[in-house]
Every structure is written in C-alpha cells, then in structure tokens.
Design goal:
This protein is of the alpha+beta class and 138 residues long. The protein has helices at residues 16-25, 40-46, 56-63, 78-86, 91-97, 102-106, 121-131; strands at 2-8, 29-36, 68-75, 115-117. It is 41% helix and 19% strand. It has a four-stranded antiparallel sheet, sandwiched between helices. Helix 2 packs across helix 3 (56-63). The protein is globular and about 35 Å long. The N and C termini lie close together (11 Å). The structure holds adenosine-5'-triphosphate (ATP). Adenosine-5'-triphosphate (ATP) is lined by residues 55, 59, 89, 110-111, 113, 116-117, 119. Adenosine-5'-triphosphate binds at residues 55, 59, 89, 110-111, 113, 116-117, 119. The active site is at residue 116. ATP binds at residues 9, 55, 83, 89, 103, 113.
Length: 138
C-alpha cells in the first residue's frame, strides 16, 4: 500500500464531499485530512519547483485565494492511480481528451484545475510532511 498527497484546490472545495466520495469509491483510504488556508508564502514553498516561471505569481495567488483540503490517501499504486484519476494538468484540454477525469469535471480553466496529486514517491513524502509534519514516514 502506497500513500500520496491529494489537494482539493480552492475552486473545488465546495465539491469536497462529492470528491471524497469518489476517492473512497476508487479504492483509496483517507488516512488524514486538513482544511487550510495557505498564505502566499506557504503556497510559494509548496510550489517552489515552479519559481521563476511565468505562471508562478498567479499560481501562488490561486492557491492562497481560499481554503484548500489536503488529504493523505492510500491504496496500491496510489501515486500513479490518483494522477490517472485527476487527469491532465490543463482542465480545458482534459475536457477534450479525458472527459471523465476529475479535472475535466471539477476544474475551472487552464490554471484552476481543482485537484493536485504528488508526481513521485519523493514528492509525496515531501508534500505529506508539508501538510502533516507530525506524520510518521514509513
Ligand atoms: P499539480 O502539481 O497541481 O498536481 P501538475 O503536476 O499536473 O499539477 P505542474 O506542472 O506541477 O502540474 O503544475 C502545478 C500547477 O501549476 C498546475 O496544477 C496548475 O494549477 C499550474 N500550472 C501549470 N502549468 C501552467 C500553465 N502553463 N499555465 C498556468 N498554470 C499552470
């Protein structure tokens, strides 16, 4: 069993219950959950890998624009499977190529894409610690 970090981003928080239902029905266990409103500084830390990119300031503004919900979810191959379920980064393109994915359904535009999923095992470790600093790393 593998763990990954999922984020319900500000544009989708009003659909959180529905999304958590889908998470559970997709075979994940929800191990931890936290609703937080990130400061711009915290959002910059979270997305430090994108520092310097053209979209960085608006990404930080988006991610600190309202509460988000961070979830530690677990199942076999959680990282890959959750990324598959949320679909391509760009909501508009996702609607054309993967209409059933969660970003196609819950996303807003090419930046506000409703959901996040860690992209690798090291990212998952880092992001889980970011939101749940007391969690035990296995
Ligand atoms: P996430 O890390 O949120 O799961 P991702 O791994 O699919 O998304 P990244 O390339 O890591 O995509 O980008 C992080 C976030 O930055 C995206 O989810 C999106 O909100 C925003 N973003 C990425 N690329 C662009 C872009 N070209 N224009 C605007 N926003 C973007």
């Amino acid at each position: 069993v593998e763990r990954t970090l999922a984020i319900i981003k500000p544009d989708a928080v009003h659909k959180a219950e529905e999304i958590e239902d889908i998470i559970l029905r997709s075979g994940f266990a929800i191990l931890q959950k936290r609703r937080v409103h990130l400061t711009p500084e915290q959002a910059s830390d979270l997305y430090a890998e994108h520092y310097g990119k053209l979209f960085f300031p608006s990404l930080v503004a988006y991610m600190s624009s309202g509460p988000i919900i961070a979830l530690v979810i677990a199942r076999l191959q959680a990282i890959t499977y959750w990324r598959e379920l949320i679909g391509p980064t760009n909501t508009i393109k996702a609607r054309q190529t993967h209409p059933d994915c969660l970003r196609a359904i819950y996303g807003t535009d090419d930046q506000r894409n409703a959901l996040h999923g860690s992209d690798s095992f090291p990212s998952a470790q880092r992001e889980i610690r970011f939101f749940f600093p007391d969690s035990v790393v296995e």
